[in-house]
Amino acid sequence: SYNWGMGNVERHPGRLPRETRTYIARVTEYYREAKS
C-alpha cells in the first residue's frame, strides 16, 4: 500500500500490484512474530 496510494488497497483489493502484495505479506508476518 505504501507505493499504491492511500485508500487504493481498500477500494481495489483484487488489483494490488505484486510489490504491494509482497510488502503487505511481509509486514503482516513481522507483526505476528513481534507480537508473539
UniProtKB/TrEMBL annotation:
Protein name: Transglycosylase SLT domain-containing protein
Organism of provenance: marine sediment metagenome
Phylogenetic classification of the source organism: unclassified sequences, metagenomes, ecological metagenomes
